[in-house]
Amino acid sequence: MADVPERRPETAPGEVQRPAHRELPAELAPAKKGALGQMLAPVAGFGVTASSMFRPSVTEDYPFVKTPTQPRYHGRHQLNRYADGLEKCIGCELCAWACPADAILVEGGDNSPGGQYSPGERYGRVYQINYLRCIFCGLCIEACPTRALTMTNEFELAGPSREGLIYEKQDLLAPLPQGALAAPHPMVEGTDDDDYYRGDVTGPTQAQVDWMREHRPDDPSLEDVQTVEAPTTAQSGGHR
Ligand code: SF4
Ligand code: SF4
């Protein structure tokens, strides 16, 4: 029996079948360049650069002069505080669960009489945002039940190291409001977390200042503290 040459398969296993090359119709084919066009083709791409070199500059002297962003621009996050200095974050992790990029790490902790960081039972003990992952979508701030987490207009988030782009709680916490006391300290006397959420607490009270003077007399926030009266809803038992 005569040897039959082995027939090579048209497509090897795993290889993608490619369509046969076809000539484009004449009306769709690119126009053929003349001799001069072919000669200038290698430098033609510089035409845009050359023509732009003599136009007025449109840059805004960045980084010395920064162009303001739109008011609702999504920039770096911020962990907000109440007017008396307590933190708004309650460590619930809803922001972390809402994040599609898995960029947030939260570990909650229990508040205690000597370590009250936020109104209520819990506070954000560990809070990290990984800006190597964040896509600035804002879903985390929508998920936050206490408006603890918002986004600022700050956009300069580049850095020389990967570690530096993981922002810790101290990097994200808002500055202390004018006249407030640095946490931890007790809540305003007679209030609960509802009073804080409603905005009834407008600043630190004398009782909070007295507590601070007794427990942390060297805290620098005591120097500029401005006290207010406790909210009337709290004094009277109000809505509760
Ligand atoms: S802005 Fe979006 S990606 Fe960034 S931390 Fe929030 S939810 Fe995650
Ligand atoms: S930032 Fe808001 S959503 Fe995230 S843990 Fe704190 S309170 Fe919860």
UniProtKB/TrEMBL annotation:
Basic and acidic residues bias locations: 1-10
Query: Is ATP-binding one of the keywords UniProt gives this record?
Result: no
Which note does the record give on the cofactor?
Binds 2 [4Fe-4S] clusters per subunit.
Query: Would you say which domain of life the source belongs to?
Result: Bacteria
Which PROSITE patterns does the annotation name? 4FE4S_FER_1, 4FE4S_FER_2
EC number(s) from the headed UniProt entry: 7.1.1.-
Q: Which Gene Ontology molecular-function terms are recorded?
A: 4 iron, 4 sulfur cluster binding; iron ion binding; NADH dehydrogenase (quinone) (non-electrogenic) activity; quinone binding
- Residue positions annotated to bind [4Fe-4S] cluster 1 are C89, C92, C95, C144
Gene Ontology BP terms: aerobic respiration
Task: Identify the SUPFAM superfamilies for this entry.
Answer: 4Fe-4S ferredoxins
* A single cellular component GO annotation: plasma membrane
Q: Where is this region: Disordered?
A: 1-22, 183-240
Residue positions binding [4Fe-4S] cluster 2:
C99, C134, C137, C140
State its cofactor: [4Fe-4S] cluster
- The principal localisation class reads membrane
- Which family does the record assign? Belongs to the complex I 23 kDa subunit family.
How it assembles, according to the record, is: NDH-1 is composed of 14 different subunits. Subunits NuoA, H, J, K, L, M, N constitute the membrane sector of the complex.
Q: What is this protein called?
A: NADH-quinone oxidoreductase subunit I
Q: Give the source lineage, highest ranks first.
A: Bacteria, Bacillati, Actinomycetota, Actinomycetes, Micrococcales
Q: Which gene encodes it?
A: nuoI
